[in-house]
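Weekly sync notes, structure subgroup
Attendees: PM, AL, DS (notes)

Item 1: joint prediction request from the bench team. They want all two components modeled as one assembly rather than separately. Inputs as received:
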Amino acid sequence: MSSTGLARYYELRQGAERQIAPGGNSSIDYRYLDDEGFKTKYARGHDRSQIEFFVEGVHCAACIWLIEKLPSIVPDVESAKLDLGKSVATIKVGAGGSFAKVAEKLAWFGYRPHPIESDEKAAELQRAENRSWLMRIGVAAACSGNIMLQAVALYAGLAGEWAVYFRYLSLALFLPVLFYSATPFYKNAIASLRTRTLSIDVPVALAIVLGAIVSTYNLRNEHDHIYFDSLAALVFLLLASRFALKRIQQRNLGGSHLYHFLSPSKAKRLGANASSIVEVNTAALLPGDLIEVGPGEVIPADGVVQAGASAINSALLTGESLPHPVGPGDQVYSGTVNEGGIIRVTVAALGAETRLGKILSQVEGGALKKAPIVIAADRISKWFLLAVFVAAIAVFAASADFSEGVNRALALVIVTCPCALALATPLAMSLSMKKAARRGILINGAEILEKIARVRKVVLDKTGTLTYGSFEVLQWRDLSQGAIRGIDAAVLALEERSKHPVARGLTKFLRERVKSEAAAPKEFKEEAGVGVSGLIGERFFEVRSLKPDDARRFELSGTQVGVYRDGTLVAVAALGDKTRSDAREALKTLGALKLTPYVLSGDNAQVVAAVGKELELPQSHLHAQASPEFKSAFVKEQDPCIMVGDGANDALALSSAYVGVAVHGSMDVSLRAADVYIAQPGLSHVARLAIIARETMRLIHRNFAFSLLYNLAGGLAAATGHMTPLIAALLMPVSAFTVYASTLWGTSRLRKNT
Amino acid sequence: MNIITILLPLALLFSVSFVVAYLWAASKGQYDDLETPAHRIFLEDEMERTKR
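Output from the run, pasted for the record:
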């Protein structure tokens, strides 16, 4: 990084906790960003020169510095601006500028960029709405503050014409609150009355309007009871807490249009006589076309292999971490990765018709089905409100005197304003969500926390939660006991030349061991599904899957590899997915929370059993070779449960689950299906999420209990005439503040505990 | 106490000017992003220096 004069990044980063890895994802081909078709969909501005990226991994001042430095690094970039809160970078390029170059640079920095589909109208609307909320809150705050100042004088015993002067002034100050700040409540109240549902806004609007009318009436008749101070404070508090919740939701909903990252946008189509190769957009492919897929490329469509042999990684669809061999006549699926040699495929199905496309459409159907649960969460507060209305009408009817009846009913409505429901619950939720977001846990809606707290079962997809999801050397045994020198160097020299995942695992492992490198191999040969071989010096080395006779001799778990020197076995290695370092600890935490873990995996039974044994999980809770369909059915069977998974292969299960938690690396699709997205892999974050949810619910229950007690006592006092509307209105902000303080204290304690 | 007759509206007028300033700032989008500018302030000096 110092070569581009960006070394200051590291200076700035000191003190920042997390690390970024330059060059982490630079292998992605971003050229499609400059396609005209892509630009019309994603770029903004009249000349399509502006684009927004959701950038993964930005977290500190150094990241802002680095990203906003882009204009001086990439040619023809006019400006770059980062919104740290949303993780959105806005890039503007000049004539001849290239979005692809910007994206490549961002990826090279280690911030993986995802273009955000431009919906200028929606974004503009949201911005305007946020600003108008802020203005309403500001006006309410200023007015209620000033009214309170005058109320102090009035309560202190101001009398005579000065009292009248002060009261009219507070009326004047209340008018902006009544006619400007509080309008959202009226709108919501009218909307909910129109749909014949009872929302919290109905009594709030009623209290504001009635309070204003009664106060003005009393003011004109020189009575004492005016409530402008309390009403203004109520409006301000309610607006502020609503806005806080709104902002956190908007922030967490960002970055969900990341769909197209799954399948490639380009394909190599063979001409009519199969001699020329033309690069075309995937959308231009037709069933029956012959396409070529090179090593490391994603297959763009479902089809049948015509020629070539290779290994295909279908992790996206099946969750299987090992690539499986394919040859002519075999079916391959869109979204899977070719990890071996070049293959030619006849296209059979495209886009939504592919297996991946079908899974994705099911996911979207599942996402829609969730809405009724959200509505159900409001039910308690509705019953409460209904009860209060009925009680108020009853109290009014029971009073002999008209004005006394109005007073009692109004006092009842005001005093029983369900502050814990209206204020503290969203506040506690939003503070917890914010806290979770800071730890890289994005929760897609407040009710999810409640659901997580209720669940007692957690279903884990092995990859990404319990294991790392890549090949690692678990065992390496030198059979010659060190008598033959340079075995590891020879293996390294051979494996370095292969792109197979097993070879990558071995290379990574051996690089650290080998001190003196072996000569370059002669007659190097790679045989798909078997291994590699070549001449190192005089000796003929083969690194390949163990011959059946030898495999019986060594009982190794995972994928077994043998090293043969001139035909004799000299070393064996076992490779597999290593168990994550935090898995054991996190399982213990889950156990303490009384969450029972179940493990699902697309891998074979042997691999899953080994992981289960290592982590001391009961064998009956492990399920190997699970297809997406099985996972989904299993999750439904275990309802209610939390499903933790990653990748499109789990998307169906995630959306079928009571709560779906998607872990790192699968953001693109998983966000659509999952309720929670965790930006870092590992089970410890899942445990943390469970703790946060439980603590938040405990806090909300405490607030509920307080509110219930307060409402009961207050309601009784009001109904029996021991409480005037004035005292009720005075108590309201007091009770609200108590709940507010309790919530703040509770969530700050939460911060320490997790 | 008559001074209050003038002082109070004056004080209110004064506070109205702050509210107007706030409304102007909010409508111009100065509160759209509350997080990034707080970090950006640390970078300003260095940026100036590199420009020169």
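Discussion: Chain A touches chain B at residues 8, 12, 60-61, 64-65, 68, 82-86, 127, 130-131, 134-135, 138-139, 142, 146, 162, 165, 169, 173 (CB under 8 Å).
Action: AL to compare against the crosslinking data before next sync.
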